[in-house]
Design brief:
The protein is built from two helices and four strands. It is of the alpha+beta class and about 120 residues long. The chain has one domain (about 5-120): Pantoate--beta-alanine Ligase, Chain: A,domain 2 (2-Layer Sandwich). A four-stranded antiparallel β-sheet has the order 1-2-3-4, with helices on one face.
């Protein structure tokens, strides 16, 4: 039987090959969308952590208390996300300045989401 006598449709093998190609393309699309969604959530968390660090440094700058040298750890939530700020205050050669390093972690997390280094001056400077 010639091709024109069959009606010119697709064979079962051709349909199965086309379905396999479409399914591979759809799986790749789903993986890409999933990856973008995860990256967006991680970016949001890191931006919130950076804001928390900046807020904490600003708070230290406007406080009248001179920050003591050493480490401090405190909660610094942002937009309903539980975050923890770990601060390290260092003396500098200039007695009127302190260097402050702030690392922000997700509550229970081990790797910092954001780091910020800044300086705080005393009221006498």
């Amino acid at each position: 039987m010639t091709r024109s006598a069959r009606g010119g449709g697709f064979t079962l093998v051709e349909v199965l090959v086309a379905l396999a190609i479409v399914s591979v393309a759809l799986m790749a699309s789903l993986r890409a969308v999933s990856s973008l969604t995860e990256a967006g959530a991680d970016l949001r968390l890191r931006v919130l952590a950076q804001w928390s660090a900046e807020n904490r440094l600003s708070q230290m700058r406007v406080q009248s208390d001179w920050p003591p040298v050493g480490q401090n750890r405190q909660d610094c939530p942002q937009a309903g996300v539980a975050l923890v700020c770990q601060e390290e205050v260092f003396a500098t050669p200039n007695p009127f300045f302190r260097r402050v390093e702030i690392a922000v972690y997700e509550a229970g997390g081990r790797r910092p989401l954001a780091r910020l280094t800044g300086f705080v001056t005393s009221g006498n400077a």
